[in-house]
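Appendix B. Raw example, untouched.
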Amino acid sequence: MSTVTFAPLFRSTVGFDRFSDLFESALRNDTGSSYPPYNVEKHGDDDYRIVVAAAGLAESDIDIQVEKDVLTIGSGRRDSAETVQYLHQGIAQRAFKLTFRLADHIEVRGASLKNGLLNVDLVRRVPEAAKPRRISIGSEPLNQPAANAEVTATPSAA
């Protein structure tokens, strides 16, 4: 019997709490690259963090952009200024690009690079107009003119 895992659904999305959106996103996206390794973490109801392994990268090497609810984290290939002959090269220095589809009302709060880990902090900020509100039964209707009310014309003196 095969086991169903939902881990691929959480790789490239942040803030989606509805499974229908996750399934749709997973079907649209291809597997993508696993380089560099990263985690998507949830800290509380509205706080998220993406942690990217960025060993050997400086802040100036990393580019972080948000455009149309898509967060992109990337870095170009690092060229060494000195000529080095590697006997073994285990530290990757290739370019990468990670993309994450952000759910509605998810904003990037900030980013920091510490001990070889890039932390991108995200927060969900739902505007008051989008939050659910309770309607009490028996409340007075608003006094608005009816849409089909007659308009009375006043004769103009000519």
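End of appendix B.
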